[in-house]
Amino acid sequence: MKSILVFLTCSIVLTSCVKKEKREATFYAEHEASFSALRHGDWTKNTWIRKTTNLKMIHESFKTFGYDKLENLITKSENAFLIEGIYIKRNFKTVMDSLELTYNTPDLQSKYYNEFWERRKAEKNDAMVYAILKEFNALQDDTFQPISEREFVNDTLVNLLSIEFDNDNLNSEKANKDFDILKTYGFHQSAYNLLYERFEYSELELDRERLEQELTKTKAFQSPWLTDNQK
Fold first, then answer.
1. Are 28 and 218 in contact (CB under 8 A)?
2. CA–CA separation, 134 vs 136, rounded Å?
3. What is the pTM of this model?
C-alpha cells in the first residue's frame, strides 16, 4: 500500500510539472498600444508621454475612468510618495498644489519647482502640464464636476483600466466580458493571464480551456498589459 501511495504521489507531482511546463512554453499575441511603453518602461526616460497630445489623452482617459479609482498606484506617507518606482521625498498634496502655484511665477519658485518647470518648457509641454495639474487639484474637491473631452478619450485605455482596477463587483459574467474585451483588442497574453494568472479571477467559474483555445499563439513572449499577480 505504501508503494502505491508513493507511486500516486509521484505521478501527480510529475503530471503537474508537465502541465506547468507546457503552459510556460506557450505564448500568446499581445497588441502593443501607443501607450503600452508606460506599463513596463521607465517613465523618466519615456518620450511618448512628453508630447502634449499624449498627455491630454492620458489625462482625459484617467478622468473618464476616475482618478479616485487609481489612488492605489501612488504610495503616500506624510513626507514622501512613490509612483511607478519613482520616489519623491515630499508631501504629495504639497507638491501638486505648489506646482500649480509656481507656474509662470518665478518669484515663488524654489530650486525644485524652477527646475521642474524649466524641463517642461524645454519639452514644450508646460502649458498642458499646468492645465492638467490645475484640473487634477480641482478634482480633489468633491463638489467639482469634471467634464471629459470625449474626442481625447482613449476607450481602449479606459477599458483596460476598468478590467484591472474596477473589480468591486466581479463575477463570472463580468470576467467573460473582460476576457472578450482583451481578446477583441488583441491583448491575448493578457487574456490568458486573466484565465490563469490573476488572483481576483481565480475562484470564478470560467470555461478556461475553451476560452484559451480562442487565443492566438505566438512563438515569442510579449509583455502583457494585464500582468501575472499570483507570483
1. yes
2. 6
3. 0.82
